[in-house]
Amino acid sequence: MASIAGSTSGATRAIVTITVNPALDLSTSTATVVSEHKLRCGPTRLDPGGGGINVSRVVHRLGGESLAIFAVGGLTGESLRRMLDTEGISSRAIPIAGTTRQSFTVDETDTGKQFRFVLQGPELTEAEWRSCLSALEQTIVTGGYVVASGSLPPGVPDDFYARVARLARDRDARLVLDASGDSLREALSEGVYLVKPSRRELGELLGERLESDQGEADAASELVAKGSTELVALTRGAEGALLASSAGISRLTVPPVRVLSTVGAGDGFLGAFVLRLAQGHDPETAFRTAVAAGTATTMTPATDLCRPEDVAALEAQLSPTTH
Questions:
Q1: Is 92 within 8 Å of 135 (Cβ atoms)?
Q2: Annotated catalytic sites, by residue?
Q3: How many angstroms separate the CA atoms of 286 and 264, rounded?
Q4: Which of 26, 149, 169, 257 could form a disulfide with 178 if both were Cys (CB 3.0 to 4.6 A apart)?
Q5: 8 A C-beta contact, residue 282 and residue 268
Q6: How much is the pTM?
């Protein structure tokens, strides 16, 4: 397997991901999506999905290792677990009574549009979500990284990621968070290491409409100045990404590529970012690899993730960051 980089400071730090609302991702295509018609579809693809799970898959593809903790139930959950085993992903599955959700993506071949249907997921009991936290507490490694990513299913309290933040802090581990809304706000009140919002999510968090590059930079810098997080990685789609830290603002634009699907691009970004950090690289180096991996993910079809050779090629094209 191709590897994007080696460690600069000895052993790679441990990475644990947690996903309480995973999904079995199903994708297909049809000529045109119209109502009240039977739509004949092309080949179907199935992938294990959910924020933290995809982060672990990207880490593995790029030559690293992580432990994926996730809640799982029913036949779809069993299929997801088997797929992860086949990929060689180290995991710890937390059984739940409900059935793991599916997500459904349809590419409209006549127009190039993509339709994404995301189900809400099963309701977790208090005992079930507390079991997820207990598994995380047992596996966090001092000085390592915890990646909490994805939506919270029904039954899981808004402060779930805040609880994760406290567990990470108690073990002197760094929390990397990809969340939105109240769950993001609650976690930031505890303090995290890295947060990865979109422009919309950052604006909603601060109650502002971010309509300019400077507005985005100011908003990201505000989170760092308040001590809510050490790093803000703001993803901006085809416009690239922004990194805010106590050292200032860095921006990267993405090379032009043929976009096949944007599904999982944010997870590709985050997986590469945390792997680079765990290998001992500085945040700006990790940021470049992350932008390359996010862009490389858009070059793959449907719900597939980035290929190592694409990440390496794109990273070589990226211009130096500017403050």
A1: yes
A2: 267
A3: 18
A4: 149
A5: no
A6: 0.93
